[in-house]
Design brief:
Length: 281
């Protein structure tokens, strides 16, 4: 990995408490494109594959000329994405798989929202898509997402595996014995124990989720100063700050309550603050 002292030193320090001076994610993404070599920027592009998932599902169900803005940054810029739609096999295999199944009107995971189904395809292909920091980050994010959904379901007396992405430590543990409070992952995924033990308010729970992300990033990048891993970690933190400040405290409470209402009706469950995505058709 190359050293990126100038790039990282020129970016503002980030914290969840900062109230101004937060750069836009897209601006930093484009800046990375100017400062990084091809191989390093390729990793940056692959950090945003969840936005490609959202774009894929949205455009399948909606006219591309609608008022919804193309989610960016993404691996595929909008022009490339639209061009690839002429031959969906041009996409990464996990996206091409969605297009093929959609054309045949088939589902592999009919109990999941479409976005989560494509995300499951993504994790099926993870080892072919990314390695190193990105692979570790995506696996941590998967387990964090599945942990919050599993706990929400258990709180409402629902089967906790129904809406989990079928991959990762939490999913495997939930399948083995969903009755154990921390699913038996106290040592291998200690973040779950912290989520189980939380007794504060809902907004504080959201903040705990973000803190768990930041702690993982700190531990994973310790000793990797000015490397590509640090660039990727900076972008993850920037997305975290952007997401956190996009929710006022009262909005966070309302969003979580809406989730609880949805789970209790046994429809879809997807925790906004615990994923990089959002609820889709």
């Amino acid at each position: 990995m190359g050293a990126h002292y100038y790039l990282l030193s020129s970016l503002p320090a980030l914290s969840l408490e900062m109230k101004r001076g937060v750069p836009e994610v897209r601006q930093v993404f484009l800046y990375c494109g100017e400062q990084l070599g091809t191989a390093d920027f390729e990793q940056v592009r692959r950090l945003f594959l969840f936005n490609d998932i959202k774009n894929t599902v949205f455009f399948h169900f909606n006219d591309r000329k609608s008022n919804r803005q193309y989610m960016s940054p993404a691996y595929y810029d909008e022009a490339t994405y639209v061009e690839n739609l002429k031959d969906p096999a041009s996409f990464f295999p996990f996206l091409a798989r969605f297009h093929e199944l959609a054309r045949e009107e088939r589902r592999i995971y009919p109990d999941l929202p479409y976005t989560d189904e494509v995300t499951a395809f993504f994790y099926d292909d993870l080892d072919e898509l990314v390695d190193g920091f990105l692979a570790e980050w995506y696996r941590f994010e998967l387990d964090l997402r599945n942990a919050t959904v599993a706990l929400a379901h258990r709180q409402n007396g629902l089967p906790i595996t129904e809406k989990l992405i079928p991959s990762g430590l939490v999913w495997e543990a939930a399948r083995r014995d969903p009755s154990v409070p921390d699913l038996g992952l106290g040592s291998s995924f200690p973040a779950l124990g912290e989520l189980v033990a939380w007794e504060g308010g809902l907004t504080g729970y959201e903040r705990l989720i973000e803190d768990l992300r930041w702690r993982w990033l700190d531990e994973r990048t310790q000793g990797f100063e000015f490397t590509t891993d640090q660039v990727l970690a900076y972008l993850v933190r920037l997305m975290s700050v952007t997401r956190w400040h996009g929710l006022r405290a009262e909005d966070g409470e309302a969003a979580f309550q809406k989730l609880m209402d949805t789970v209790s009706r046994s429809i879809r469950s997807s925790v906004q603050f615990a994923t990089s995505g959002e609820q889709q058709p």
